[in-house]
Amino acid sequence: MAFKSGYVALIGRPNVGKSTLLNAVLGRKVAIASAKPQTTRNRIRGVLHDPAGQIVFVDTPGIHQPRTKLDERMVSAAERALREVDLIAHVVDVSKPPRDEDLAIAKMIAHLRHPAVLVGNKSDLVDRTEGRLDPYRAQAEYLEEFVVSAETEQGLEPMVQKLLSLLPEGAPYFPEDTVTDQTEDFYITEVIREKILEQTRDEVPHSVAITIEERVQRSETLMYVRAAIYVERDTQKAIVIGNQGQMLKRIGLLARKDLEEYYGKKVYLDLWVKVRGHWRDQDAWLKRLGYAQPEA
Question: Domain limits at 96?
Fold first, then answer.
């Protein structure tokens, strides 16, 4: 049987479980996930290796109505991915009725006329899934439909095998030991941001950005990381630090635990919180933080 390889974009509105689905398919964590919408800000590639072929999944920011320049760049990254992949996987939440954003994405796929499949996620949250994909089917033509649960991993293996069959023949894009193309600094910032998303109130998460100021291997068993946490207001800084520094300490403890498990060594995590007003609407800061300029 010929070897298959190609890129599959995971597209959908915020909070339908795209990142959780990617992590479940790969069997390891490469993308952060939380209950907060718009958790994913950058395109993240995760590489699945199989005897029959290689799938390069592209996890994208949720498509939504932008309100800041950061939002514009997130949506641009997602829409650009549609034009650069072999197959689109439109991920939806079957536990809830479709929203306008869901149907708008289906219409966009129909307009593009690009090969696409429909993935109904979160099937573990409902007793019956019959008919829940009908509204999407009415808007666009999909090559295949899947009902899965990223949380319980139900239906993932048949989905993967079908996706492989839909990809073109070709050599692998990445070596067998590659699971993601993200840098170490990017992964560390995402882990820290994930813990902030989990631990803080609604006004903070979307205003947070992380930069790695220093990363040094101090010994074979110890890595030192100094990271800056940027927020937009003094009130947000106070929330992230917490009473007598307890919130920042907890964020650091949770992030360090994940990083030590990932690297297999001790990690000294030195966190600092800084205020940079309205950074989400400042081109220079968006560039510094790695958010690409949207295409015209």
Answer: 4-166
